[in-house]
């Protein structure tokens, strides 16, 4: 929970600060401060930025070349910095209009700070604010983790404790999980096997999620957990649309920022009692799993909308599921394997197309008569009539189970 750019405006030593450009970027998170000066190359002073820094300059190295300020703003944006504070009055008197236009375009907050204000005092106060914010975040994460993963009962009023940390969890709340799709496979394909590189990917993941949630004014408590981010959300109808827009933007941003990576989202049911958040977490994870059962990544699913999977996931005895699957589909599974695969594909497509031969043939690129013959052979093998609704339901259920078992 880093402080946002707009939060520094509230600090005591920054009363004289003025925002002159890049206003649309003031909800970006500040990870740290960075004092840089422009020498012959205006980008030389910021080459070590890691992302998330707010940059300070006095202009001492510009030697009157204030056009370099525009290049500096562009460089900060490229390095994913979050703002620029210019100590004006001695080396830089005015900010050029061109620099303000670029700051607005790139959404890089551009501030002026009177020369009388000492950078050492400003940097100290911002640093302290960031550290305090991180201490509070660790305390909040411990508190929320206890709600979701703790074995004992919650002590005291959990809602009041959340309010203490600045989060409103009154009313019905649900859990939202943002899960990195096939992360181990991604690391293998990209040949990434060192902890530092893996950590950088997860940090990028966190920053994207946090930044976009804040962009949509969604202040939610966040927990990092293995290859996913979990957050509590107040389930109010008027804000669910905003949440869904934010989640879609997160998916698009992850794909753009990390080539080959995507995320799936699960949303659990809402409950008034925070003790039920474990249940909501489980539902959110099952919502993601339902997409995996269908071979889908990059999905957004609500538990209440996953249909038959809600029943199937509740059956803990795997043997029961396996036996049902084999009883119904065994005759076409246990024979020639290559034909089995095609038979299952035909069966699955035929049922999803509501037993329509023409549309199924088009989907499978098969001649209608060939398909009709194959359907007849499948019916004979399974001893069923696929025009009978009840028998179709049995087969459909077995197909759902087959996806789960895989």
From TrEMBL:
Domain Purine catabolism PurC-like: 7-130
Occurrences of domain PucR C-terminal helix-turn-helix (ranges): 345-400
Gene3D superfamilies (alphabetical): PucR C-terminal helix-turn-helix domain
Domain CdaR GGDEF-like: 157-289
InterPro entries per record: CdaR-like_regulators, CdaR_GGDEF, PucR_C-HTH_dom, PucR_C-HTH_sf, PucR_dom
Family label: Belongs to the CdaR family.
PANTHER family per UniProt: CARBOHYDRATE DIACID REGULATOR (PTHR33744), DNA-BINDING TRANSCRIPTIONAL ACTIVATOR ADER (PTHR33744:SF1)
Protein name in UniProt: Transcriptional regulator
């Amino acid at each position: 929970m880093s402080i946002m750019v707009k939060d520094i405006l509230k600090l005591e030593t920054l009363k004289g600060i003025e925002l002159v450009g890049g206003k649309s970027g003031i909800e970006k998170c500040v990870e740290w401060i960075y004092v840089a000066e422009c020498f012959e190359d205006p980008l030389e002073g910021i080459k070590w930025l890691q992302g998330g820094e707010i940059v300070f300059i006095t202009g001492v190295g510009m030697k009157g070349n204030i056009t370099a300020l525009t290049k500096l703003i562009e460089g900060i944006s490229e390095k994913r910095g979050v703002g620029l504070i210019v100590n004006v009055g001695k080396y830089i008197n005015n900010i050029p209009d061109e620099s303000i236009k670029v700051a607005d375009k790139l959404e890089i907050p551009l501030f002026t700070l009177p020369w009388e204000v000492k950078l050492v005092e400003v940097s100290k106060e911002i640093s302290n604010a960031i550290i305090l914010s991180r201490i509070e975040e660790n305390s909040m994460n411990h508190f929320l983790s206890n709600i979701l993963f703790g074995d004992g009962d919650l002590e005291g009023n959990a809602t009041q404790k959340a309010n203490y940390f600045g989060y409103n969890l009154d009313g019905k709340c649900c859990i939202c999980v943002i899960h990195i799709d096939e992360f181990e496979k991604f690391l293998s394909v990209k040949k990434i096997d060192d902890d530092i590189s893996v950590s950088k990917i997860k940090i990028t993941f966190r920053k994207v999620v946090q930044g976009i949630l804040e962009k949509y004014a969604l202040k939610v408590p966040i927990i990092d957990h293995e290859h996913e981010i979990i957050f509590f959300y107040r389930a109010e109808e008027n804000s669910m649309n905003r949440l869904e827009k934010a989640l879609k933007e997160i998916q698009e941003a992850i794909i753009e920022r990390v080539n080959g990576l995507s995320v799936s989202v699960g949303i659990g049911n809402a409950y008034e009692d925070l003790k039920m958040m474990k249940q909501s977490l489980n539902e959110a994870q099952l919502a993601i799993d339902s997409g995996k059962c269908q071979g889908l990544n990059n999905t957004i699913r609500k538990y209440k909308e996953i249909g038959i999977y809600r029943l199937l996931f509740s059956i803990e005895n795997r043997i029961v599921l396996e036996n049902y699957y084999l009883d119904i589909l065994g005759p076409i599974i246990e024979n020639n394997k290559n034909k089995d695969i095609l038979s299952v594909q035909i069966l699955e497509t035929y049922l999803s197309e509501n037993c329509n031969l023409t549309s199924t043939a088009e989907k499978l690129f098969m001649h209608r008569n060939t398909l009709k013959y194959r359907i007849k052979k499948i019916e004979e093998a399974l001893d069923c009539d696929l025009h009978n609704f009840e028998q179709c339901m049995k087969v459909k259920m077995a197909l759902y189970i087959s996806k789960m078992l895989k």
